Description:
Blueprint: E1 2-3, H1 14-22, H2 34-47, E2 51-55, H3 58-69, E3 75-79, H4 83-86, H5 91-96, E4 99-103, H6 112-118, E5 130-136, H7 149-162, E6 166-169, H8 173-180, H9 185-188, E7 193-197, E8 208-212, H10 214-226, H11 235-247, H12 252-267, E9 283-287, H13 295-304, E10 307-308, E11 310-311, E12 316-320, H14 327-347
Parallel strand pairs: 1-10, 3-4, 3-5, 5-6, 6-7
Antiparallel strand pairs: 2-8, 7-8, 9-12, 11-12
GO molecular function, one term: L-allo-threonine aldolase activity
InterPro entries: ArAA_b-elim_lyase/Thr_aldolase, Low_specificity_L-TA-like, PyrdxlP-dep_Trfase, PyrdxlP-dep_Trfase_major, PyrdxlP-dep_Trfase_small
Pfam families: Beta_elim_lyase
Amino acid sequence: MIDLRSDTVTKPTQEMREAMYHAEVGDDVYGEDPTVTKLETLAAEMLGKESALFVTSGTQGNQIAVLTHGKPGDEIILEADSHIFYYEAGAVAALAGVQTRTIQGERGRMPLDKIREAIREEGDIHLPQTAMIGLENTHNRAGGVVIPPDYMKAVYQLAQEKGIPVHLDGARLFNAAIALDVGVKEFTKYVDTVQVCLSKGLSAPMGSILAGPKEWIERARKWRKRLGGGMRQSGLMAAPGIVALTKMVDRLAEDHHRAKDLAKGINEIEGIQIDLEHVETNIVLINIKQLGITAVQFLNELKEFGILGSAFGEYLIRLTTHREIQDEDITQTVNIFTKVVQQLRKRG
């Protein structure tokens, strides 16, 4: 099976498994797990922040950020297709009691004038308080596009002018850095807090990092506890995270190259449309509307030939490359796409 549903399907490397076996552990809720401390210190340094917190998942990291930045009745500004708004089960309402102000972006970028308009003015008792502006980089539903540092700088300057913190959902932030060939700090210097996933392209079995100012992270640590995220001998899970950050970042370029090759090959098939210019990292969005079949139906056809992908809309398919996808898998996937389309045409 060629599994292109997500980079979350990656399994830990042998080095990660060995690191887990040999990890020195303690009780992290008491702050006594040396491997967790090592991971958090490493991550804070890499991300250019004072402190960091190991959390169970990207969603937990984002929700802790919302809970720590805001309070019930506040409002947060998000891009309309952002992961926090679209894929986290309404948690900002269920857990933090905040409401969302969404802005439709272009390739994941909210227009600056629209952000300015969305910020609530102080002093009017009828209005909620704007507690946070959220960005996502790379932007999943925009096709894994990179949100460039100059745009992030402009948002950050506006936020500072209004005294509002900026949180970055950087689940695939290292993909963005590799795509632009810049250090990850070129992005994180323009946000107050950031969440990065260890378990996607970096291949750790679980976990994310939430980073920010030291005092803010201490408050976030309490929210992690309230959410049931206080883990005991969690060095077993932190150890592969260290390997992920020190050994797995540079190889993300391989995933990007294969995504571009995949997109070019599939785009040659009549009736399929891909915006090749914006295949920037490891995600490929494929429009099949001209074929007269839905994404779910097409994916069922692909599955019969051993290809797995994700439906991203009625006629939109997402394929995601990762460490376990090799060159021969790209060739095979293009061939099977071609075969499925040919079979559909024969059926009429």
